[in-house]
Amino acid sequence: xxxxxxxxxxxxGSGVGVTLPRPLLRELGLKVGQRLTVSKAKNGSIxxxxxxxxxxxxxxxxxxxxxxxxxxxQLWNEAKLAGREIR
Length: 87
Known about the structure:
- The chain is of the alpha+beta class.
- The protein has helices spanning 22-28, 56-61, 71-78, and strands spanning 8-12, 15-19, 36-40, 46-50.
C-alpha cells in the first residue's frame, strides 16, 4: 500500500512529535499512544514501523520448559551474593 500525505513536526516539551492525519491512522490500523520503531532507509527515507504487542501466552508457548538453562544463567544463579539480593 502506497499512501502519501503530509506529516507535521511539532514541538512537544523538549522533543518533537510527528502529526499524522486521522484517516491515515485509521487506514494503517494505528492508535494514539502506540509505539513505533523509527529507522532510516538507505535512500534517506524515514520508516515508522509499528512495534508488536506481545501476549504472555504467545511468548510462553514458544518456551520449552524441558530445555536446560543457558550457561550464563547457570553461572548467574551460582554466583556469590554481592549485596542484599534475595534468592
